[in-house]
Design goal:
182 residues, mainly alpha, 7 helices, 70% helix, 0% strand, elongated
């Protein structure tokens, strides 16, 4: 009996259930048990694929096509459709917001893909996804915006993973156990 307490007739069933749960959880032969190398490997690959995949796809589909027009808008004073799209949503100062938005997203994506300040980058991208949602909704990209919002939220919760610059910079060699002074 747990805690050495007898609760009467129903306690026999409770004790059997407790023993069964203890047996199945203690002696599992699953390849994905809590501390198996396989589970660590799969989790490492999953965080890498999520981080790099979301960052690369966001860059290819939404940021890289806007870099050249942004450059021409800032330096050559040429019109830029992205500024007009932002202005249509009622965002103040669209001529300033658009280039700053592209710059911040570009830097955050680069940091995210490399795994450098991953959680901060994912938080920035999550906030920008929330702020960009009205524009995405207006042009028919609401589902894409929500998917990126969920992915970046998951990265905030999961962290960078082992295959990242964050892991390299924060790695500390395990110290030798300290011997008591005699």
């Amino acid at each position: 009996m747990p805690f050495g307490v007898d609760f009467g007739v129903g306690s026999c069933h409770l004790a059997k259930t407790h023993r069964m749960l203890h047996y199945t959880s203690s002696y599992t032969s699953s390849a994905a048990s809590a501390d198996s190398p396989w589970r660590t490997f799969v989790r490492t690959l999953a965080t890498l694929f999520l981080r790099a995949g979301a960052g690369v796809l966001l860059a290819i589909e939404h940021v890289i096509p806007e870099l050249a027009p942004a450059w021409r808008f800032v330096w050559d004073k040429q019109p830029w459709a992205f500024v007009e799209m932002i202005a249509e949503t009622g965002t103040p100062f669209p001529a300033v917001v658009a280039p700053v938005y592209i710059l911040v997203v570009s830097l955050a994506i680069l940091a995210l893909v490399l795994g450098l300040i991953t959680r901060v980058s994912a938080i920035i991208l999550t906030i920008l996804a929330v702020l960009a949602f009205p524009t995405a909704y207006a042009v028919g990209f609401a589902e894409t915006g929500l998917l990126y919002l969920l992915i970046f939220g998951a990265i905030v919760l999961l962290g960078p993973g082992i295959l990242s610059l964050d892991a390299i910079f924060t790695y500390r060699k395990p110290s030798a156990p300290k011997r008591p002074l005699a």
